[in-house]
Amino acid sequence: MKVGFIGLGQMGSAMAVNLVRAGHEVTVYNRSRDKAEALAGEGAKVAGTVAEACDGEAVFTMLAHDDALSAVVHGDGGVLASLGKGAVHISASTISVAMSERLTKDHAAKGQRFVAAPVFGRPEAATAAKLFVAAAGAPDAIQTVTPLFEAIGQRTFVLGEEPKSANLVKLSGNFLIASVIESLGEAMALVEKGGVDRHAYLDLLTSTLFNAPVYKTYGGLIADRKFKPAGFTAPLGQKDIRLALAAGEALNVPLPLASLPRDRFLTLLAHGGEELDWSAVGALAAKDAGLVE
């Protein structure tokens, strides 16, 4: 397929490369052109504008937040103005439910199609084309872009015909991950303060009751206290919890547990954690317990 890709951070760059390697004709755009030019050696075509990346059957956006996405979509020469009729905008970003609803409406008014397809997986999974894709949208649009999902991930979950469903699921998933990070940090601080080696404790946990990737990945980062370089930064984690709380408020669903990671992220950011991985939240309990400064 002829496809554009807008937003070349760690995740976006890896996804775009895998699309190229799967045989798709990929045009890439990034606000910082050097990130796009870095993919030229992989066979991607470098676009000078957003519009140039929209001259195909589909275009991905992988951007940090609602404002960045809206600027690319709604701005002069943006995706809405440039994408052809019947073409598909695939938003792989973690965005608000409200933004997903807006994009669905705006693209329909232009005769374009919109698919929400946020992904689960860290940069190493993106590099290995092992992401999990949570997709929602009109069945014909999903069918059109399924080969693209197969190029970037190991499995696609279709969650309905309303794109916002996929965004809601993604926010709920990130809320769960943040809750795991906090609980792991607290439990590790407890046993370490009592004299138990935290790495041995993690080995026990992940070999018995909690033999799951999320515990292994984030437990390892917390046990090693290795939060740089960030695979997913703390400000992005804080943003996702804020959006989950907003979704709960809109649906009249109380999320009392989500208020805890929200406050923990704010604590981390208040102490200069902007460049740390979001798993650094798991180290706050050790600091509170006097184990680290």
CATH hierarchy class name of the largest domain:
Alpha Beta
Q: Name the CATH homologous superfamily of the largest domain.
A: NAD(P)-binding Rossmann-like Domain
Quaternary form: single chain
The value of Rg in angstroms is 20 Å
The CATH topology assignment of the largest domain is: Rossmann fold
- Please report the distance between the alpha carbons of the first and last residues: 52 Å
Find the count of extended strands (DSSP E, 2+ residues): 9
Helix content: 40-55%
**What's the number of structural domains?**
2
CATH-defined architecture of the largest domain: 3-Layer(aba) Sandwich
Strand content: 5-15%
What does the largest sheet look like?
6 strands, parallel
Spatial ordering of strands, largest sheet: 3-2-1-4-5-6
Mean pLDDT equals 97
Give the overall shape, derived from the CA principal axes. Answer: globular
Keywords:
single chain; 293 residues; alpha/beta; Rossmann fold; N-(1-d-carboxylethyl)-l-norvaline Dehydrogenase, domain 2; 2 domains; six-stranded parallel β-sheet; three-stranded mixed β-sheet; 13 helices; 9 strands; 51% helix; globular; HIBADH-like_NADP-bd
